[in-house]
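Schema walkthrough. Field components (list of strings):
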Amino acid sequence: MPTTTPVRRQDGPRRRLTPAGIAIWGGIALVGAVCWTVLALSRGEEVSALWILFAALASYAIAYRFYARFIADRVLGVDDTRATPAERLENGQDFDVTDRRVLFGHHFAAIAGAGPLVGPVLAAQMGYLPGTIWIIVGVILAGAVQDMMVLFFSMRRDGKSLGQMVREEIGVVGGTAALVAVFAIMIIILAVLALVVVNALAESPWGVFSIGLTIPIALFMGFYLRYLRPGRVSETTAIGVALLLLAIIVGGWIDDTGLGDTLTLSHETLTICLIVYGFIASVLPVWMLLTPRDYLSTFMKVGVILLLAVGLVLARPVLANEDVTSFALDGDGPVFAGKLFPFVFITIACGALSGFHALISSGTTPKMIAKESQVRMIGYGGMLMESFVAISALIAACVIDQGLYFAMNSPAGATGGTAASAAEFVGTLGFTVSPDVLTQAAAAVQEPTLVSRTGGAPTLAVGISSIFTDAFGGGLAAFWYHFAIMFEALFILTAVDAGTRVGRFMLQDTIGNFWPRFGDTSWRPAAWGASALVVAAWGYMLYVGVTDPLGGINQLVPLFGISNQLLAAIALCVCVTLMLKHGKARWVWVPLVPLAWDLVTTMTASWQKVFSDNPAIGYFAQADRYRDARDAGQVLAPAKDVGQMDQVIQNSTTNGVLQLTFAVLTLIVVANAAVVWVRALRAGGLPTTEVPATPSEIVAPSDFFATAEEKAAVREWEESRLTGRPR
Amino acid sequence: MTAVRRWWAGLRWFVRESTGEARWDQYVARCAASGTEPMNRRTWERHRADQREHSPQSRCC
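Field assembly_structure (string):
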């Protein structure tokens, strides 16, 4: 019995919109257009944050319905008659046909983290408009396109990793450069994420107490799952979340006790704690700490995102900052230096375009996809969801008082660290805030101080706390603040644990090429040695950031953002290469336009960070300025003594060298790829490592909601399987 | 009422699938279909934990 439903295949029939469809999509387009117009035309009046929210939602819906479908059907040519690796190689382990909605959840949990929360908060220094535009336009034309295309190409190659695809499709030189770049970029990302946690928890006994308790809670869950109730994950997670909320509540009671004093830790102490913790967590069996912590952080992630969406609609906050601030145009902002172009595009990395996602989209997720057409929902849809998180974070940062925002986010060297000096400094920026307001804001969330709490997490927590307090009432500002800190710290720590393990496996794999025994992941000396190396690498960068007199976030965030975007350049390079090799030069602009834009912004930013003679921007200019001053026997603020002068010189030089290395590695990949592009264009296509087509037996819907036709087809298929009749 | 029940069943299905709890039932069903004796749940879950130990998954930023 032949199936009666049309299967989505390459160059299949185009479906026309029904009149009802035209009405609905016309309506959504109208909502989007109105929201964008309001955002574009409002000047100096009170603008509701909901305009941003609905401009985003309407734009996402249209992009997903039309552009993503165009990419899937025309550009990539998804073909549901072709079996996916999950179907062909099903082994119940990594290759496993997974329901599309479940896989969407897994994929989203893997790509979403602290990045989309931190970047927009820092970029709020430039006003709400640059961030909003880049997050929405960036995700539609670049970020979601990258995720979906990498997912598709990796799926057609049995789930090969990004590094493998660069080596096999571009060349050994590019492949080696990409491998080094991926490893180095991961180290920087882990260090900056860890720095965010250190800055959020330093001098905050409540935070240290509740985050510290997540370790015994996760250990308890691990043992519970292993020995008492094997496999009962929901039950264990429910107990864990209850304990977690309890830990946040109890944390509020310890402030004035002896325990509170003990847990008031300095930045340096916390750094050491985090490094020791990172090492232990990466060598412990995963069931003990990593897996249960992952359950907790996934639950918190989904919970907070839903709460935030509901909270925003209920609280209807008003944006407190300007559309475009003078810092965006003059490049002299205190949070990070540099003008709107190119720095807004590298500060907001995750949420608009994130190279790190290419590592998730190649490897794990493509081995679980049931049907090819689902790459749109999982790759493109997953990234739209991440972008929505970034928009929510941007709103949360833009609704808090701007005096408070700059007092919190300017480095300690600038604000002087006290409420009075911070108020004075904020005054020089052109904002008014009284020391009392700063003290009261800190008291409201039960923190000793909010001055120079850089890193984005505390600012976001203040924003979330004010939105939730407005939306849900109850005067729980302090609880919500620490709830938000918990939520961020929890999944940063999960990312650090998991990232250290991934780094360890990469290192063991690489060294194993020369010394095979080291590649054995069960051999303890190798496992411990590789873990120690990875932890030492990010630990060193973390220490550099924490002790930097110029402010670690100010110094390292550009490095973090640029490296993430350079990874995206490598991923987009693979996409362009494969389009040309497959003879689809006609559609190559789809990944080429984002690649070109990404290269323009990241290379301009890299150039400025390396070669700018403005000491506020160029790392080497900065090192020179401090070196000259030191040699002349001077001490330049914010350094307080010769030791700190040396520190600035050394840190800035290290950052500059790293920045230059990343840019050069990326250019090597691009140059190697360009050679392949020319060859492919001349030949009209080249052979690739794509796995030959095998007919698919599985029938499954392709989008979030199954159409009536799809439902009928699935039913028909399931019946034919039960009766054993051929279809 | 049926709508509520359907939503609840859907949510329960989604949670069980996402946490991997449903995979144990699938394993038992597979064993029953092929007539083999399934291992006990403790052993089976340990087996899965061992697999997870050697296939690290990155969590993004």
